[in-house]
Sequence to fold (415 residues):
Amino acid sequence: MKTYSTDTSKTLFERAVRVIPAGIPGHVGPVNSQFIPVSAFPYYADRVKDSYFWDLDGNRYIDYMCAYGPNVLGYNNDLVDKAAADQRKKGDCMALPGKVQVELAELLVDTIEIADWAFFMKNGGDATNFAVMIARAATGREKVIRVEQGYHGVAPWMQSYGAAGVTGADVSCNLMVPWNDLKAAERVLEENPGQVAAFISTPYQHGVFGDNSLPAEGYWRGIRALCDKHGVVLIIDDVRCGFRLDLAGSAAYFGFKPDLSCYCKALANGYNISAVVGVDSLKAAAASVFYTGSYWHSAVPMAAAIATIKRLKELDGAKMMIEKGKKLTQGLVAAGKKHGIDMKISGVPSMFYMRITNDDSLMMHQRFCAECVKRGVFFVSHHNHFINCSLSDEDIAHTLEVADEAFKVVAELNG
Ligand SMILES: Cc1ncc(COP(=O)(O)O)c(C=O)c1O
Fold:
């Protein structure tokens, strides 16, 4: 199998570092990303369609990062793009919201189990920040219980003390507990009586650089009971999992009911929108918080979100992505075995995390991902991957052919 050259990306990056801090800031650039070794990875995408992106050198990749989640139906989905284009002809950023804002809120209320209302913004971090503000407004309390390694965005309170630009005051209200540890949550609540506004967590632990971890039996039931007992608002950050586990919400998938849920990535198949949905008893608190932005009422992403959710419903999209993820990951495990390599899969299959266990240094795993990328299958080393509905059986079969060759290279190097 021919391996790719990505020289054009690298040349553009040399221009970028002169005029953009870090060249490509954040998690999609070579500085802070999972691109190890960076030489194997393209840095820029030229175009996308369905399950693929093409880099600046014209190489095609089967994309298992799905833009880190937003690509849920397939890139440039015709139905979603038509709904967006029709709305664009009428208006996008206007002095007043469009009718689609109400229609989208109604659709979310009909779709997500706990939703009695919905409120829109742009990024996942806007949603998690708003949810915490609502909890504070509702309870008159300041502290927030967070789960260690849980990612909720980049506002200072969501980062760690010691991170660049973050002060002690920014994180002073955070109370950290380990994932899946009911006793620790109970202890923290008892040590801070009447002071905790919210418990915020992702539905399961899908952190980076470690196997992902599902909730233990009874964990969410226990957290719900503790929140009820102590008058704490339970916030689920469904920004990453949302619509990939269950259209009714990832909490419904795991069988519990939060008070607020945050959505973003898969909401509009790549159009820029996020949302907080919540229960009736928090509606007045949500209305009391001053929270808005220049583009938050834009109508095009709302039309795109409506089309995305309707299509996901028709396809039974979450179930479909879980099935495709199972097929792919079972194939990856079998392909590894053939070469004496143990590929461990964790998390929900539509958002699988993978790790080669033969080598604790993780270099063997990094090499495997890099060999796949050089042959047109875009995996990153230490982040969960994403399945989208347009991923075909042929894509999965081709991925497994590439993986077979990558496993062979890695096995020979380590043999
Ligand atoms: C679970 C979770 N919460 C919040 C965020 C922040 O979303 P955004 O980057 O859109 O602000 C992310 C982004 O990756 C996320 O995965």
